[in-house]
Design goal:
The protein has about 210 residues and is mainly β. The chain is built from 2 helices and 13 strands. The mean pLDDT is about 95. 2-oxoglutaric acid (AKG) binds near residues 121, 129, 148, 155 and 190.
Length: about 210
């Protein structure tokens, strides 16, 4: 993948819906510290493919950091203070993650963003996430901050009903999406990742999703 000199420079926000904003290339200079922290987190709590309550193995590999982590198994979707794979607490939320999430939330109009949970999604080529709402959180008054890294993805952002029309946005390396307030429960999805190789992250997309779980 060719990158150009101006690829990493933050650009003007794009409003997706009321309360929902895309911040193109927001990560900017925070990228190297993000990589280092990510490596530590995924070493302590490796990616795994969770099983949905319906018995399907998710195509996206997942792990978490923070005081609570999102998990799924036969009994349902929920937040857990422990990694069910090891029984250990999830790795702490790195300072650079929190700083990035809070500054993105503020740039999107949400001052004083509180988060206790960061879900890390790893998409290999072909992995996708079907249409869903993020509604397992106790803290629905807080927005969601979602950071895209690596290969690009087509993100679909809809309304409060599954059948509402969707907007289609290409999310690229360093982009951040924030949705909250009237958009907090909007349906969204990620289309299957197309083949490619990112210069830093290889043939994958990573996504960090910050929420207030408890
Ligand atoms: O990967 C993304 O951009 C979105 C992830 C997502 O919707 C989720 O983890 O609930
Ligand atoms: Fe989601």
């Amino acid at each position: 993948m060719q990158s150009s000199f101006f690829d990493d420079i933050p650009q003007s926000p794009i409003e997706l819906a009321q309360g929902a904003v895309v911040l193109p290339r927001f990560v900017g200079d925070a990228m190297p510290s993000l990589y280092r922290a990510l490596k530590e987190v995924v070493t302590a709590a490796p990616f795994r493919h969770l099983i949905t309550p319906g018995g399907h193995k998710m195509s996206v590999g997942m792990t978490n950091c923070g005081s609570a982590g999102w998990v799924s198994d036969a009994s349902g979707y929920r937040y857990s203070k422990q990694d069910p794979m090891t029984g250990n607490q999830w790795p702490n939320l790195p300072d650079c993650f929190l700083e990035l999430a809070q500054s993105a939330a503020a740039a999107a109009g949400y001052a004083q963003f509180e988060t206790d949970a960061c879900l890390i999604n790893q998409y290999r080529v072909g992995a996708k996430l079907s249409m869903h709402q993020d509604r397992d959180e106790g803290g629905l008054e807080q927005p969601i901050v979602s950071v895209s890294l690596g290969l690009p993805a087509t993100f679909l952002f809809g309304g409060l009903e599954r059948t509402n029309p969707t907007r289609k946005i290409l999310l690229e390396h360093g982009d951040v999406v924030v949705w909250g307030g009237p958009s907090r429960l909007c349906f969204h999805a990620v289309n299957a990742i197309q083949s490619g190789v990112h210069p830093d992250l290889g043939p994958r997309r990573l996504n960090l999703t910050f929420r207030k779980a408890v």
